[in-house]
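RECORD TYPE: inverse folding
INPUT: structure tokens
STRUCTURE:
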């Protein structure tokens, strides 16, 4: 399957008129960059001399940022703590022109933070601050009321479940019910170890590890040709049935994507990455591009092609990254 430069450009123009709601765990991603000059005398670990620090939207907020960067309109639904990190993340999301009306700030709650220390272009360590979500009936009612209003305005929805507590069964049911009534696409970026019901989704985009874990199948390892990978096909079929999904795109890293759909035979899209520098956030880019493309009128194969191409752009960047229409079209042109 291929899309011409002209076809992709026309589809990306339609992104500007689409509003996508991303519901899930909002995180603050911090990156500390530096250089290693010696080993610590206290322990056999490198000493990183810090040269710069940056903070960016992470988790579900990074998915929304990817949608916005690609030209679409994005709103987020989730929670933040009433702490300095929550204030910072909310500011960053507003700077990215994201709709944060459904990003609830709760007192006595801590914002999720993922801090990465990077030296010589290599990640040395990641430190996660993941406080438990404290849902109360009042908080849940306030959140679902605002969520329902945002769903009324959406052209597509993404459930970004990192398993941190925002996506409950009640939240999932509300999204699926409203989306079905509006006939808008629902994308699921799933998390292994979760037993929530997501029946009726439009598309799910697990990676290979997540797909096998959720299906309950031991991965025997990839085949050279994903279309001859019987374990992968069985896994995909089980997930399609589990979620009553219309489509499934399993990301395979260097092998690209494996596609299943009720509409066509299984397909394999080879990777469009010219250089793999950092895979952080590539999955966020895939679900963002895929659902926005579906909301813009693309068929599933076209949406997957755009998502695969966008992932090829972001893995060539360091850190949690996104992709602009200009970068995507340049990458398409460079792919021949």
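DESIGNED SEQUENCE:
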């Amino acid at each position: 399957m291929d899309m011409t430069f002209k076809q992709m450009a026309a589809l990306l123009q339609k992104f500007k008129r689409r509003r996508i709601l991303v519901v899930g765990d909002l995180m603050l991603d911090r990156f500390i960059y530096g250089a290693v000059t010696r080993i610590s005398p206290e322990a056999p670990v490198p000493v990183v001399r810090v040269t710069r620090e940056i903070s960016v939207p992470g988790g579900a907020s990074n998915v929304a940022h990817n949608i916005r960067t690609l030209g679409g309109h994005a709103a987020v639904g989730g929670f933040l703590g009433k702490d300095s990190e929550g204030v910072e993340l909310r500011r960053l999301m507003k700077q990215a022109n994201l709709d944060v009306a459904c990003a609830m700030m709760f007192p006595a709650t801590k914002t999720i933070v993922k801090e990465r220390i990077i030296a010589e272009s290599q990640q040395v360590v990641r430190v996660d601050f993941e406080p438990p979500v404290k849902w109360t009936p009042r908080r849940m009612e306030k959140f679902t009321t605002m969520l329902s209003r945002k769903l009324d305005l959406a052209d597509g929805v993404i459930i970004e479940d990192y398993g941190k507590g925002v996506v409950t069964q009640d939240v999932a049911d509300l999204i699926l019910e409203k989306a079905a009534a509006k006939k808008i696409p629902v994308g699921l970026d799933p998390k292994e170890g979760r037993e929530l019901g997501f029946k009726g989704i439009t598309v799910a985009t697990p990676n290979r590890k997540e797909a096998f874990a959720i299906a309950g199948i031991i991965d025997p390892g990839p085949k050279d040709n994903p279309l001859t990978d019987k374990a992968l096909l069985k896994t995909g079929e089980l997930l399609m049935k589990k979620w009553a999904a219309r489509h499934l795109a399993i990301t395979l890293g260097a092998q690209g994507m494996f596609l299943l759909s009720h509409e066509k035979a299984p397909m394999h899209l080879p990777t469009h990455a010219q250089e793999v520098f950092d895979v952080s956030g590539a999955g966020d880019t895939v679900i963002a591009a895929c659902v926005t493309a579906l909301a813009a009128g693309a068929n599933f194969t076209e949406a997957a092609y755009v998502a695969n191409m966008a992932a090829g752009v972001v893995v060539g960047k360091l850190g949690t990254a996104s992709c602009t229409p200009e970068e995507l079209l340049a990458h398409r042109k460079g792919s021949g």
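NOTES: Residues 137-153 form the longest helix (17 residues).
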